[in-house]
Amino acid sequence: MSDVLLVGIDCSACSERALQYAAEWAESAKLQLIVAHVIQWSPFSFNTAKENEERHKRREAELDRAHGEIVDPVVSRLRERGIPARGAIRHGHPAETLCEVAEEFGATNIIVGKTGASKIRAQLFGSVAHALVQISKQPVTVVP
Amino acid sequence: MTRMSPRSIGVGSRLALAIASLVAAAPAAAEQGVDQRINDAIRPVADAVSGFIFSSVSVSGVAVPFVLLWLLLAAILFTFYFKFINFRAFRHAFQLVRGDYSDPLAAGEVTHFQALSTALSGTVGLGNIAGVAVAVSLGGPGATFWMILAGLLGMSSKFVECTLGVKYRNEYTDGTVSGGPMYYLSKGLAERSERLRSLGRVLAAMFAVFCIGGSFGGGNMFQANQSFKQVVAVTGGDASWLADKGWLYGLVIAILVGLVIIGGIQGIARVTSKLVPFMAALYVGAGLIIIGMHLPDIPSAFGAIFSGAFTGEGIAGGTVGVLIQGFKRAAFSNEAGIGSAAIAHSAVRTNRPVTEGLVSLYEPFVDTVVICTVTALVIVVTGTWDPSVDPSQGVALTSSAFESTISWFPWVLTLAVVLFAFSTMISWSYYGLKAWTYLFGESMVTDAVYKLLFLFFVVVGSSMQLGSVIDFSDAMIFAMAFPNVLGIYFLLPVVRKELDEYWADYKAGRLRKFGKAARRA
Description:
The complex is a heterodimer of chains A (about 140) and B (about 525). Chain A has about 140 residues and is an alpha/beta fold. Chain A has helices at about 15-30, 50-80, 95-105, 120-125, 130-135, and strands spanning about 5-10, 30-40, 85-90, 110-115, 140-144.
């Protein structure tokens, strides 16, 4: 069996509980932890010419921000605790992309938080946790 | 990238004030009929320009505009030179659009789909609605046949220019990209041979000048004019409160466009860019429903289309006359060979320029073979086309064709027309600005001058009569084809080499598929 866990985070503060849960699990079971962040993006969106022209620049800026403000601080905090952690940042559909990252790193479990959206909102707009449970090939742990 | 000195801001704001006061002064003179005055002032210039661009040659006794032969010849040559790339790459191009060959590590960059849809939103405009109605009323149902043929051949022209657009684009250190005929004409020809360097520069400059003209004409005035006509028509025609207030409509649209291109309110542009595909689908859907409701008339409609295409009965100029109408409106609508869309396609992220060329095959296909044909069929099956109808009533004719079956549809059509017009204006303001900065360099002042001129022409366009607007718009847009196609002839071997290498890789299975496509394979 592989020894990798994957935790998906939105931002370091709002995914705190999922992150704590994953960290404790990884620490006690001596597992590697992948900290994944997905920047929402679709290859089939309709853009203006101006947006397209600046897309590459904007993408770099998005990646820089995701590294500097979200993933890197979390990874270094985990490493200080002695947990072998790595970051992964991707563009795409949140749930689908988390599954792909899990496959890429051979993760055996995906841990995510939930937004705490009301039942109606979740019904209307769906939630990442919900979609993930449906499509993931690995077990998914949703931390309330 | 923008260089700016305190002095240039002063000049810019002064200029802005000057033009703003010019536009603001317009309503003050309204008692005299601003529309009429603007029309009288611009008309002689517009007529002179279009007279020159549309110099005719005689084909079997019928005067044919030379530029049409120029575009048609190019499209046929490209189709043969690239061995019917417009048909043989159709399936592969779809796989490219679907993302089968897109590396997930490049997620977040501009995809083929995005580049194509952006280019399409500039192409799908009033040409598809008003232009086709003009073609069918002047050329009869047979014009539809030639229009479709022109669309299919135009795919090859589009393939060449979009491949070149990506190959010779400029990539700046800050990560932004700029491409289009200006760049492939100047860089491409210089690369071919030292002797072609100055020719390339001249062609690029010519293209840029015409492109700016086109952005004021077909990409702006024509759209403003025709969308205004439709708004007047649904709000009561001549009795409408708006009937003699073209300048007011123009001012409102100019403010909205200004918010996007000067105010940088991308939100409006983004909303439009999402609504336009939806409206296009709605338009085609409604068209298909109407065609379906006239099922018994379809065989006779196709009969009229085929027989009309070759007999040209009752049409000025006979068969050649029909052919001209079909080709002209197809070329105006899908802009293949004109070079405009190459600017939009250049933003794609790929290291194989040919891929974007292949994807661009879908542009004339969707625009002309699908959307224009739906318009033409609706007009033909509902029997609303009438050779005696005033050809300046482009949109009105299409509108009444839809109305004859779905009574409330003109309202939806009006919304579609205004949205198409608006998105085409936004796209063309971008094309024009690219050409403008190619000529005058990039600075706050030059940008502002162009944008204010563009807004000024929105007001002018909605105030003018269709006749002169349509002639001038046609003239400027078609003029772009001269430098563009001439330069492309020199660059054909470059495209051929790129295509042959790529196609060999594709056929040998050396291109990597990703994701679901890889698992399917």
